[in-house]
Amino acid sequence: PQHVVLYPLVSKSLRNIAAGKDPLEGQRHCCSIAQLHEHYSLGYPDLDELQKNPQPLIFDIEVLKVEAPGSYQQDPWAMTDEEKLQAVPLIHKEGNELYRQGKVQEAAAKYYDAIACLKNLQMKEQPGSPDWIELDQKITPLLLNYCQCKLQCEEYYEVLDHCSSILNKYEDNVKAYFKRGKAHAAVWNVAEAQADFAKVLSLDPSLRPVVSKELRSLEARLREKDAEDKIRFKGIFSQ
């Protein structure tokens, strides 16, 4: 056994990592005692108690799995800027493969990780600068892939938000209009959906068959909804 004075702070970082957070979240560059004095709590009662009353600790280490050399992938927060840039195409490829396998949620997580890497790099650049724009153009296709996953997961308002953010910068992005049109249609924003699909056709007339299919589907859903509403209101007024 050994006294480990800094263990509560280390444990907090490890718990943040396990929760997918930045391990240094809420920390400043000062000693653990100063951290405790400033924040009064580490966020975990057991760690607070250990911080106040240090005591010998014994660690039991269990091997969960053994990975082959070169197979370990760092979390984005642990990568250098160069490692982030190199990792993005690989993560993108992994996301595409998961999507082809029908693992939509897992694919979305991969796209999110790739976007996070690029966003982290972009924050270090002057908005609108050539480097910032270059990174943004790499983010856009990843964000559209992420939106495709969210469409399939029926998380339509997130799709509306992300596609609108893309279109605020790139007014001629056909894929963003199409995905936003599908999301609008799903949440019964009929006029907005029709406007987005019309924009798709004006930008790329070759997509008319695909757009026509979406519009027919929307019209069929509207007729079905109208029929259901008539039955429902008929029941109300006949009482």
From TrEMBL:
Its main location: cytoplasm. It comes from the Eukaryota. The keyword Cytoplasm applies. One of its GO terms (cellular component) is cytoplasm. TPR repeats lie at residues 174-207. It comes from Herpetotheres cachinnans. It is found in: Cytoplasm. The gene is Aip. InterPro entries: AIP/AIPL1/TTC9, PPIase_AIP, PPIase_dom_sf, TPR-like_helical_dom_sf, TPR_rpt. Residues 1-63 form the AIP/AIPL N-terminal FKBP-type PPIase domain. May play a positive role in AHR-mediated (aromatic hydrocarbon receptor) signaling, possibly by influencing its receptivity for ligand and/or its nuclear targeting. The keyword Phosphoprotein applies. The lineage of its organism: Eukaryota, Metazoa, Chordata, Craniata, Vertebrata. This is AH receptor-interacting protein. One of its GO terms (molecular function) is peptidyl-prolyl cis-trans isomerase activity. Interacts with RET in the pituitary gland; this interaction prevents the formation of the AIP-survivin complex. Keywords: Cytoplasm, Phosphoprotein, Repeat, TPR repeat.
